[in-house]
């Protein structure tokens, strides 16, 4: 918008599409992800630009974002001692400083803080900035190379960011989280755990059954011994070649 003043001040917003998965920087128009974990495919976002004149003029366009099921292993985490809302507001300048000091094209993949609640977004002085760098051939720069250069240029990067935030800045290289396991792998792990639990339960049942069997077997043996002790020559045969009565003779009862 070539106008000056309020008529030339543009604010961007998402007016349609999956607004729960994406958000937009109202000043720069930069679109970033909020949560697309476990999702893949194409997302269509309707973006509006509006000036701030008395009679607001607007324009809209559709932005298609394709989310790949795979994830890059070259994402590097830079931890800043700044509040997340401040980093979000200056993300374009942070990206510019990193590009200038590293000499590569740098893209901010995500800005994250461990405080998820909206009311706490300005209370934590530690923000993770996930970046990925591309060389002149548009190839991903290996994560180890990015980390090495971040450490080498640490002082210059902090000085550049201090001008952005107007405050003392500490920038440390962190370890980006590992890529989430695929649904197929998660299903395999769950089935494996269930199978192992079933085997353990079955083994415990068998051992308990054998223990009970041995216990009652010993009790039966004790009873048989007691009975045998109360019989006078239990193997003696009567005249009909049959076992004598198991009853004790009357004189033994006396």
UniProtKB/TrEMBL annotation:
Gene Ontology molecular function: beta-catenin binding; cadherin binding; calcium ion binding
GO cellular component: catenin complex
InterPro entries: Cadherin, Cadherin-like_dom, Cadherin-like_sf
CDD domains: Cadherin_repeat
Location (main, coarse): membrane
Pfam families: Cadherin
Record domain Cadherin: where: 1-77
GO biological process, one term: cell migration
Keyword list, A-Z: Calcium, Membrane, Repeat, Transmembrane, Transmembrane helix
Transmembrane domains' residue ranges: 185-208
The name this protein goes by in its record: CAD87 protein
Gene giving rise to this polypeptide: Cad87a
């Amino acid at each position: 918008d070539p106008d000056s003043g309020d008529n030339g001040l543009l604010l961007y917003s998402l007016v349609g599409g999956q607004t729960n998965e994406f958000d937009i920087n109202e000043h720069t128009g930069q679109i970033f992800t909020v949560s697309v974990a476990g999702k893949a495919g194409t997302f269509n976002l309707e973006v509006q630009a509006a000036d701030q004149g008395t009679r607001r003029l607007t324009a809209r366009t559709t932005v298609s974002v394709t989310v790949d099921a795979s994830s890059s292993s070259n994402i590097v985490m830079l931890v800043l001692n700044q509040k997340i809302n401040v980093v979000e507001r200056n993300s374009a300048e942070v990206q510019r400083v990193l590009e200038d000091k590293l000499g590569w094209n740098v893209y901010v993949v995500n800005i994250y803080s461990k405080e998820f609640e909206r009311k706490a977004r300005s209370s934590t002085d530690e923000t993770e900035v996930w970046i990925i760098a591309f060389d002149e051939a548009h190839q991903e720069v290996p994560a180890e190379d990015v980390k090495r250069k971040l450490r080498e240029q640490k002082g210059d990067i902090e000085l550049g960011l201090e001008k952005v935030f107007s405050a003392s800045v500490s920038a440390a290289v962190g370890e980006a989280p590992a890529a989430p396991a695929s649904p197929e792998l998660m299903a395999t792990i769950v089935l494996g755990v269930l199978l192992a639990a079933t085997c353990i339960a079955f083994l415990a049942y068998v051992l308990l059954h054998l223990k009970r069997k041995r216990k009652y077997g010993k009790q039966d043996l004790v009873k048989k011994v007691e009975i045998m002790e109360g019989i006078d020559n239990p193997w003696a045969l009567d005249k009909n070649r049959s076992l004598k009565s198991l009853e004790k003779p009357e004189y033994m009862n006396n």
